[in-house]
Design goal:
The chain has 115 residues and is α+β, with helices and mostly antiparallel strands. The protein has one domain: Jelly Rolls. The chain contains one helix and nine strands. Strands 1-2-9-4-7 form a five-stranded antiparallel sheet, covered by helices on one side.
Length: 115
């Protein structure tokens, strides 16, 4: 059962990446945009240029972050890791996290808004 869930999660991640293709040469001029918003779910493409960061913060619901292109440092629960294209992270609600772009980066952010 656990492997089925993992496979399903990877399939969802792959579909999300296909829905948000890389911006390529247009990345430096791109802006963060909302893709979808409902009562319980928000999906956005986050554009973070090299050297820019989001300081540590928390959100009320669970989130997923998938790197579409570029590289960034992602810090959560005292652990820092480098993310690249295709890397995918899930965070529980209220989990403190921060990120900093190493290169121009775009991310697919999914937030559960229901508490």
């Amino acid at each position: 059962m656990k492997s089925t869930f993992l496979q399903r999660s990877l399939t969802v991640a792959a579909l999300a990446a296909a829905a948000a293709p890389g911006l390529g040469e247009g990345l430096a001029q791109a802006r963060t945009t909302a893709i979808f918003k409902s009562e319980q779910l928000e999906v956005a493409r986050i554009v973070l240029l090299a050297g820019k960061e989001f300081p540590e913060h928390r959100v009320q619901g669970e989130i997923t972050v998938q790197c579409i292109e570029g590289q960034l440092e992602f810090r959560a629960s005292g652990v820092q890791q480098t993310m690249g294209p295709g890397d995918f992270i899930h965070l529980r609600r209220h989990e403190p996290h921060a990120l900093r772009a190493i290169t121009d980066t775009s991310l697919l952010l999914t937030m559960c808004l229901a508490a």
